[in-house]
Amino acid sequence: MNTTDRKSILEEPVTLLKGIGPASAEQLAKLGIYTLSDLLFYFPYRYEDFRLRDLREAEHDQTVTLAGKVISQPVLTRYGGKRSRLSFKVLVNQHILTAVIFNRPYALNQIKVGSTLYLAGKLDKHRWQLTVYYYKLSLNGSKDAALDQDTLLPVYSTSGSLSVLQLRKWIKQALQYAEHVPELLPPSFLKAYKLLPRHEALIKMHFPRNAQEGKQARRRFVYEEFLLFQLKMQSIKQRHRQEVKGVAQQFDQDKINQFIATLPFQLTDAQKRVTKQILEDMRSENGMNRLLLGDVGSGKTVVAAIAIYASVTAGFQASFMAPTEILAEQHYLSLKQFFAGDNVQLALLTGSLSQRERKDILAGLQLGTIDVVVGTHALIQRDVYFKNLGLIITDEQHRFGVEQRRQLRQKGTAPDVLLMTATPIPRTLAITAYGDLDVSIIDQLPAGRKKIETRWYREERFNDVLKFMEKQIKLGRQAYVVCPLIEESDKLDLQNVLDMYTLLKKTYPHFKIGLLHGRLSTAEKEQVMEQFASGRLHILVATTVIEVGVNVPNATVMVIYDAERFGLAQLHQLRGRVGRGEHQSYCFLIADPKTEVGYERMRILCETTNGFQLAKRDLSLRGPGDFFGTKQSGLPQFKVADLLLDEKALEVARQDARRLYYSEAFWKDEAYRPLREELAMQMKDHQQLLD
User: Fold this and answer.
1) What span, in angstroms and rounded, lies between the C-alpha atoms of 549 and 569?
2) pLDDT tens track for 553-596
3) Burial environment of residue 412 by CB neighbours within 10 A (0 to 12, 13 to 18, 19 or more)
4) pLDDT in tens, 46-91
5) Residue 676 backbone dihedrals phi, psi, to 5 degrees
6) Where are the alpha helices (DSSP H) in 107-210?
7) Domain check: are 462 and 333 in the same one?
8) Starting from the edge strand earliest in sequence, which strands make up the sheet with 478-482, in order?
């Protein structure tokens, strides 16, 4: 049977199966299941493991199945409407456990002292308690058929009246067609990585006989998902290169080396590595489309300066776009320092310039007498023309939309593009969410930077924190106080900036205190930040609008109120506003977390200052879907693969995809035909989404 015939069977509607009528088909459609193929590839998210365990070998917080004798009369406690708690003692392997069953009051009449039970649930070994989600009476000492020693039962996501048991039954029936599922991977890959054939992996994904079988099946599909995704990313990159033919920038490497030698500090190894990657891109005829990730204070600006210098010496102009005027001004001043000994003409283009100043800069850009322009959104306005734009750098790229970046790109003929962000993103997430970009990571801080001392206090010790802050200010330092809300909320009991501002004004009438939040106009925000940056304000009370802010070396104290309300990445960004000068800096987290996750966040932040390590921990706590905070992250929805658990597999698949895509064999050999066809189909779907 050829591939087309196989596919046609798999594309038959689910109603082909016994027991699935129009009503059931409608229920399955809500899960995105329409065909036999959809049903076969609707994988379980976990398994119920009913294999009996020896209590002595069971681990704390593990889901286990135990057999035991009831030795106490069950006690039923009702609370909050229909909720209830049934508890009783069970003798298991000469150990006495407390079994707890929630919201099943009818069990009171079923469970009697002296009866033998099979119990499946989560074991708390500290309290010797089992939270039961499945129980069964043993009749005449026989074991329940559901508690099959050799079976792991799949658990699927359902909706409406559709039950897991129904899904399980239908999928089991559909597996008779598993042999018709085409193999995508060539035999050489299956052999090299010891992967199960696709149809076999499919059966074992649904009904593994043991944990090892399930693991092997999952391993196969993880690799397949990642490989296809990375091939798709290579295809998108290649299409971009074809559509946007770059210009090879011919610069003198000796000049670049001399420029680096004049810098007042040594580049870190990480800075050297990413600089090399960027310069290689710029030399290439393919247009650069690279994302530069760097922790707060890792030295991205100097890397940008080297790239700008290379572009200018090659005869091109460069633009540097920042999200705020004050940040643009800071970048402008930094670049001015870097280029002090060189004949590089800089300009600052923002909305607050006079008409005359603006006119002179626009003329200089058009004539080519200005080499580098730093600015805000003002750079993408229609009347901004360049003579020969060769390099575009965008700082805090997530603050700009795709359309804004496209408009800036159109100001030149296929300029190289470098996007920068100080938001630490784990490598796995970066190469996935930004798979169509080349990713460079500065994962090392410059030598000699003082570690920010991070402390967590409960709310009752807030006054102690204020006293410490007061001492720092009297030493000539400055402080931030960050709160989550602008004004009082009935729904959330959180400290708001207006109340905090009022409190601090009353407590410290002799200090100059500023207020910064999102409802201020851009001009007002800029004014407050400028006052703080120049030292005219002692304390800045703010919302998270300061997360991406200017460098204020004199600020040594960061107080974050209701810190449990923020994610780890955001807390780290806020902490990074201090520790930028020669003085020891401090970050105080004021929090009363109500959950284990909240508690863990506080603890991790106090222990770790490395942004990438924190991001990885944040990923494990929140999951990839929530990491970016919005759905527009562009993260793909993998059926099986997990970006955190399967980091190594992602890297292997990425390397394989890159090698395959640019090999002649991939496009010609019969062994790769199913993979090529699947890639073509996915690229077609991708294009339809774009259209």
Assistant:
1) 15
2) 899 999 999 998 887 878 888 898 898 888 999 999 999 988 88
3) buried
4) 887 777 778 887 888 888 888 899 999 999 999 877 889 999 999 9
5) -65, -45
6) 164-174, 187-193, 198-206
7) no
8) 453-457, 586-590, 555-561, 478-482, 539-542, 513-516
**Rg of the chain on CA atoms, in Å:** 31
Residues 141 and 209 in one domain: no
pTM score of the predicted model: 0.67
Q: Are residues 417 and 544 in the same domain?
A: no
For residue 195, what are its two tokens?
Answer: 């992967």
Number of folded domains that form the chain = 4
The reply to whether 420 and 556 lie within a common domain is no
Q: Measure the CA–CA gap between 137 and 90, rounded to whole angstroms.
A: 13
Closest CA to 439 of 302, 609, 612, 319: 612
Contact by Cβ (8 Å): 539, 511: yes
Q: Which two tokens stand for residue 160?
A: 């409406």
Give the total residue count for the chain.
691
Instruction: Give me the pLDDT at residue 630, please.
Output: 37
Which residue segment(s) compose the domain that 132 sits in? 52-147
* Residue 243 identity (one-letter amino acid): E
CB neighbour list of residue 339: distance below 8 Å, 6 or more residues apart: 305, 309, 346, 372
Give the burial string for 223-259 (b: 16+ CB within 10 Å, else e): bbbbbbbbbbbbbbbeeeeeeeebbebebeeeebeeb
Residue 111 resides in a domain:
yes
CATH number at residue 289: 3.40.50.300
Q: Based on the domain organization, do 303 and 358 belong to the same domain?
A: yes
Tokens of 174: 């559909």
Q: How far is CA 618 from CA 58, 339, 607, 650, in A?
A: 29, 39, 14, 19
Q: Are 399 and 548 in contact (CB under 8 A)?
A: yes
> pLDDT averaged over the chain?
86
